[in-house]
Amino acid sequence: MGHREEMLDVIKRAYAARGDGDAAGLVAAFHPEGLFNLVGDKSALHLTGSVQGHEPLRGAFGQFIDHFDFEKREILSELVEGNCAAIRSRLVIRYRPSGKVFSTEVLDLFKFQDGKIIELIEFADTAQVKAIVS
Questions:
Q1: Are the C-beta atoms of 29 and 6 separated by less than 8 Å?
Q2: Beta strand pairing status for 84-95 and 68-81?
Q3: pTM of the model
Q4: CATH of the domain at 47
Q5: 97-132, pLDDT tens digit by residue?
């Protein structure tokens, strides 16, 4: 398997773990110093910002999983170059506290180190998420 395929395999296993509500499986795809950053205005949506390291990642992903069930993910495009990947997806998400279901697109930018995700920057429609959780 080539470098590109190995990176995409790690990403798809991480996405599967997220879809299954498996925070530990999701964190396992990350380097011990891995960073996750949900881009957005923290004053508008408290979920935005970054966390780094396995324990903080486990806590953050656990909170996301507790509140947002990813019912479906469709990968629209994927681009891999060097140790970086960009994945655009369409998601169907259920906000668990209210049961509201919505569809949105996200862009995930990955960097890899030692076969693991060292950085994941996620761009999502935080205004839409804020409207759902309000």
A1: no
A2: antiparallel
A3: 0.93
A4: 3.10.450.50
A5: 999 999 999 999 999 999 999 999 999 998 888 889
Domain of 14?
3-133
Helix (H, G, I), strand (E, B) or coil at 83: coil
The reported pLDDT for the residue numbered 44 is 66
21-51 pLDDT tens trace: 999 999 999 999 999 999 987 776 777 899 9
Identify the H or E element spanning 16: helix 3-19
Instruction: Report the C-alpha gap between 5 and 43 in whole angstroms.
Output: 38
CB 122 within 8 A of CB 39: yes
Cβ atoms of residues 122 and 40 within 8 Å: no
* Structural domains counted in the chain: 1
What's the Cα-to-Cα distance from 79 to each of 19, 70, 76, rounded to whole Å? 21, 22, 11
**What are the structure tokens assigned to 122, written together?**
């996620």
- Quick check: helix, strand or coil at residue 114? coil
